[in-house]
Amino acid sequence: MNLPMISLVVFTLMIGSTFLSFFRRKNLKMFLGFVLAYFAFLAFILLEFAYDFRVYDFVVLLVVMTIFMHFFIGKNLGYYVKSRVFDRYLHLFGTCSLCLFAFLVLGNLYQPVFHSQVLIFIFVLSLGALLGVLFELMEFAVDTVFKTKEQDGLADTNFDLLFNTFGSVIAAIIVVSSKTLF
Hints:
Blueprint: H1 3-25, H2 28-50, H3 57-76, H4 79-82, H5 86-109, H6 117-146, H7 153-177
Helix pairs in contact: 1-2, 1-3, 3-5, 5-6, 5-7, 6-7
């Protein structure tokens, strides 16, 4: 069994166990989040085989860890509320892992247009910053639709954007310094 299939099995077990916890609490928002995350992951695996491109297994694992940390540690165990820093560090880690993932997917779908390390750095940094803004817009949309308070004011949003930027800088450094990987 190859690593994407192992990742799928592990991801299914992690999501399933966390799903049961939220199912017992009748949390519709988490149910929809699980469904969206799980089907997005399934779609990626299907597209990976359909278009015959590969994303490094360790990057897929980073994305799975990000999703697991969000749902299980952050939501299920309540670390978004219990810890001041969990949300910030997850924004950093999540942006870094999703930025590496998006960069690899784009690199598989399109011919690289940048050959300058500086331009690659700027591209990856911009990609991560965009992903960070999209995270914040999704949080805003969830708050609006479900009448919740995921965002705790402007300071929280600004710290999230700052740590998203730090995560994209780390991803850009990894991409530029790993000439054989990326």
